[in-house]
Amino acid sequence: MEPTAAGKDGGWAVQFHCDQLSTFNKKIIKVRESYMDLTRYEKEMLDGKYGKGTAMAMKIQVAIGETFDAERMVDITRAHVALSAQDADLWFVEKLLENGAFCKVSPTVNPSIDLKYLNDHLCEIPKAGVDIVTSTNEAYKKIGATLTFNCTPYLIQNVPVFGEIIAFSESSATPYANSVIGARSNRESSQSALCAAVTGKVPLYGLLLDKNRKAEILVKVEADIQSDFDYQLLGWCYPEKYKGLEVPVFCGIKKRPTPEGYMNFGAQLNTSGAVSMYHIQGFTPEAPTLEEAFGGNSVKKSITITDEDIDMVRKKLCGEPGKIDFAMFGCPHFTISQVKTVAEILDGKKTAVPLWILTSSSTKELAGRMGFLNIIQRAGGHIIPNTCIDVPPCWYPYYGKTGVTDSPKCAYYYEIRKTNFIIRPLKESVEAAIRGEVIE
Ligand code: F3S
What we know:
440 residues; alpha/beta; globular; Aconitase, domain 3; four-stranded parallel β-sheet; 3 domains; five-stranded parallel β-sheet; 38% helix; binds FE3-S4 cluster
C-alpha cells in the first residue's frame, strides 16, 4: 500500500492505491471525509496539531481503518516493529523523523546486525551493509524505539497479557501474542506498527474484535506431534492444505507445546501462510473446548493432518543428506533453553564447520552467566547477539554454500540469496555441524 496524503480546505484527504487489498478490487480509492468516529484528540493529530510526522502516521492509520471498515480507533499499550535494516524500512522511518515524529508508545524492534561481531568473526561487512545498518539503528533510536534487536519480544522484553490491545509486526510475534497469550494484535507490517507506536492508536478491526477471533476451520491432527521440530513441520503443513485467512482450531494434539514449540508453529504458519491467529483445543486460552473456539460459528472447512502429510512436508522441505559448510540457528531468535540444548551436545567436542546461534543480547548474557557460551565457543560455535539472518549484504560468505538449520523459515529466506539449506531437528543439526555432514 502506498499512501499519499494532502490537506485540503483546512481538512484532509487520503488517497491510496490498495492493490494488496482484495476488498477493494485493485481500485484507486479517494477518501475525502473519514467516516470513522474519531475523538477530538485523534482529529487534532490528523490535522497536524501535534506535528507533521504524527499527522502522517495518523493518516496512514485512518486509511487502514477506512479500508477495513473500522468504526473508531483504540489505544495500544505495546508495539513491536519488525525493523529490517533494508531500504524501504529505512526510507519510511526517516520520512517520519524528517517530519518530527516521535513514538508515544516505545516499540521494541527486530534484530539488525552486530557489525563488530561479524567483522571480527566472519568477514568485512561491505560499506553498503555498514551504512544501512548504522542509519537504521540511528533512525529507530531517534524516533524513540527501545533497541532490543530481538524477534521474540513476546518471550522477553515486551510480553503482553491476556486481552491487551497491541500492534505487533513480525511473523512469529503476531500469532504467539494472539493465540498463546490471548493479547490482541492485527498482522501489522513494520510500517503500520511504527505508525501505531507514533500515534499510540490502532483502528479497531480484525483480530481486535471478539467475533473475528473465533475459529472457522477445524483441523483434526491425527499426526503424532511431540517435539518442537514437529511444530515446524505442522506449521508448514497447514498452509499447504489450506491457504485461507480464517482462524483455524487444531484438535487432537495431546501434549502441551513448549514455548519453543509455539514459537516454531507460529513462525511457520505465518511464513508459509498468513495465519496471525490459531487455537489449539485444550491448550490455548481462547479454546478450552471446540465449542468455545468456534463461538457459534459453523465449521466452514474441515481438514485432517496425518503422519503421511507430515512426512510429505518433511520430504519436500528438509533436503537430502550431504556435506555442509556451516550451521545456522536462531530464526526466530533462540531461547535460553535452546542454547542449553546446543551446549549440552557440544560439550567437550569440536565442530567441523562454523556454527552460528542468533539470539538477543540478554539471552547471550544469560548464556555466558550459565557457562553455555564458553562451551559453545570452545567447540567452535558463535552466539551472535541482536542479529537477523536476513540483512542482505552481511552474510555474503555463505551465499552459494550449503548449511544445516532446524528452521524452515531460515531456509526460506536464504533460498532468496541462493543458499542451500538442509533442515533437520535441532539435535541432528548440531551433530551434523560436529561431523561437517548431514548423514540421514
Ligand atoms: Fe528473526 Fe530475522 Fe528470522 S527477524 S525470525 S532471525 S528472519
